[in-house]
Specification:
The chain is an all-alpha fold. The chain is built from 9 helices and no strands. The chain is elongated and about 45 Å long.
Length: 153
C-alpha cells in the first residue's frame, strides 16, 4: 500500500491474531538484508508490525510478535518504540506485556521523552503508574528539561 505496509502490518493494525500467527510462523528464523528479523519489517514511517499492534492495543498480536522475536526496542522514524506507541494510546495491557517481556521503559524518543512522558502527557494515570512502578524513571529529563511529572501537573 502507500505506506509500505506488508500483510503483517495490516494484520497487526486490524488485530487479526490468527493471520499474524500464520505470517510470523512463515518468516520465523528469517532475517532481512540488514540482519534484523523479518517480523521487524519497516513501513514508510519506520514502524514495525509490533508498533502497529501496540498502538492499537491488540495484545494477542503483540504476544505473537514478541514470541516471534520482534525487536521491542526498535525505534520508528520519530524514535518511538512499540512501548511508546502503547503508552501514547493508553493501552495498559500492551504496556504490561511489553514491559514484562523486557522492553526498555526508559528509552527516549527523538525529543528525549520516554513512554512515561507519553502516558503522562495524555493523562493515562493507570499506564503512568504501572510504568513508574516497573522501572520507568520519573525524574528523567527530556530535551526540553521536563520530567514525566511536568506533563501531569
Amino acid at each position: 500500500d502507500g505506506e509500505s505496509n506488508v500483510a503483517l502490518h495490516r494484520a497487526a493494525r486490524k488485530g487479526q491474531e490468527k493471520v499474524a500467527e500464520t505470517l510470523v510462523a512463515a518468516v520465523s528464523g528469517r532475517n532481512t538484508s540488514n540482519g534484523s528479523s523479518s517480523v521487524d519489517i519497516l513501513n514508510r514511517f519506520g514502524r514495525t508490525p509490533l508498533h502497529e499492534a501496540a498502538a492499537f492495543g491488540y495484545v494477542g498480536v503483540v504476544r505473537t510478535l514478541v514470541a516471534g522475536r520482534a525487536n521491542m526496542n526498535l525505534p520508528d522514524s520519530h524514535c518511538e518504540t512499540p512501548l511508546h506507541a502503547a503508552a501514547l494510546e493508553g493501552h495498559l495491557d500492551a504496556v504490561r506485556l511489553l514491559t514484562e517481556a523486557g522492553a526498555d521503559a526508559n528509552k527516549p524518543d527523538c525529543h528525549g521523552r520516554t513512554p512515561l512522558h507519553a502516558s503522562g502527557n495524555k493523562g493515562y494515570v493507570d499506564v503512568s503508574r504501572y510504568l513508574a512502578e516497573n522501572g520507568a524513571d520519573p525524574t528523567k529529563l527530556d530535551r526540553y528539561g521536563d520530567t514525566p511529572v511536568t506533563y501531569v501537573s
